[in-house]
Amino acid sequence: MIDISYVQEKIEMSKRSELLAEHPYKIWEGKDGKWYTYLPDETRGRILKKRSTKKDIENLVVQHWKNEKENPQIKEIYEEWTQDKLNREEISYATKNRYDRQFNESMIEFGKLRIKQVQPHEIEDFILDSIHKHSLTQKGYSNLRTLIYGIFKRAKKRGFISYSITELIDDMEIPRKLFRKHQKSDDELVFMQDERPKVINYLMSKRDIINLGILLLFKTGLRPGELTALKWEDINQNIIHVCRTEIRYRIDNKDIYEVRNFPKTEAGIRDVIIPINSVWILKEIRLLNPFGQYMFEEKGKRIRTYRFSQRMETVCKHTGVTLKSLNKIRKTYSSILIDEKVSESIIISQMGHTKIDTTKNFYYKNRKNIAQKADVINRVEGL
Length: 383
Description:
Elements: H1 4-22, E1 28-29, E2 35-41, E3 45-51, H2 54-70, H3 74-87, H4 93-106, H5 120-133, H6 138-157, H7 165-170, H8 186-189, H9 196-205, H10 209-220, H11 224-228, E4 235-236, E5 239-242, E6 245-251, E7 254-260, E8 270-273, H12 279-288, E9 297-298, E10 301-302, H13 305-319, H14 327-339, H15 344-351, H16 356-362, H17 370-378
Antiparallel strand pairs: 1-2, 2-3, 4-5, 5-8, 6-7, 9-10
C-alpha cells in the first residue's frame, strides 16, 4: 500500500530543498549564535533577517519564496508571458521591445502589485486612470489592452485568479470622449502638391544612393523597411518583387537591425510596378552599387532604414517643406493613386493592403493647399 502522507512529505521536502537552492543569498551563523540571511526588498534592494536557529531562518526563506511563486507580481507574469511567446517565436524581438515600452510607460506601479491581491474593479480603475493620465488614443489603449489580456489570461491558466479578463473588459464602459484625439493637419501627413516637386527636384540634383532610394519611395509607395531589404534578384525590369523587410529591436540597450524574410503583412508579398519613365533610378543605383547583394549597400554593408530617415529630415529642411517622415511618402503615393482614379484593385496591390478601405481611411489625405482648394470650389457650378 502507498503511504499518501509519506509521499506528500517527500514532495514537500523536495520543494523545500529546491527553494533553498534557488535562494540567492548566503545563510550563515553569526558570532552571537544567531542565524542570518538576506531577503529581497523592493525599496532597499535587500534586508537582513535574523532567527535563533538554522531551521527557523530556512523556514523564513522557504516561506518567502513560496509566497513569491504562489502569488507573483504582475510584472513577473508579464515577463513570463512575453518570454514564452518570444521563445515559441509567436512574437519577434521588435514586438517584445514594443510591449516593454508600453509596459514601462503605463504599468510600472501597477506591475508591482501581487496578482492575488488585485480585484477586478481595480483593473477597471487602472485602465480608466491610464487612459486619462497618459492621454491615450484609441490605438494607445488597444496596445495597453493587449498586455492586460496577456497577463491576466496567463494568471488564470496558472490558477492565480478565477475571473475572466475578457468578460471584465467587455463589460467596461469607456466613454469615447475619454480618448485623446490624435489629429494632424494634412500638410503634416502628406507632401502637398506644391511640396512634392520641390523635394523631387532636390533629390534629382543630388543623386547619391540615399537620395535615389528616397526617389524610389516616391515612385513606388514602398514601406521604408521593404526598400532597405530589397535585393537585386527582386528586380525584373520595371517590377519589384517585395518579399522581405527590415526590422529593428533592442537587446542589452543595443539597436539590432535585421532583414526578416517576409514582409509586414501577408498582403505585403506583392509585385510593385515602377513607372517606365522611372526605371532609370534602378540603373543609377546599380551603377553606384554594382556588386552588392542588396540594392542599397555602402562599402559592402547594407544601408539601414535610419540613414534614409536622417536624409529625409535634411531634405525637408533644405527645401523648406514641412518636416515629414519617410512613411509620409507612402501616404502621398496612395493619395495620388486615388486622386488619379486608379482602379482599387491596382491600388491595394501596389500598397500591399487587403482592402481599399484601409487605404482610403488611413492613407488618403488632401494634398491641395488653401489657394488650390479655393480654386476648385470657385469653379464648381451652382455654388
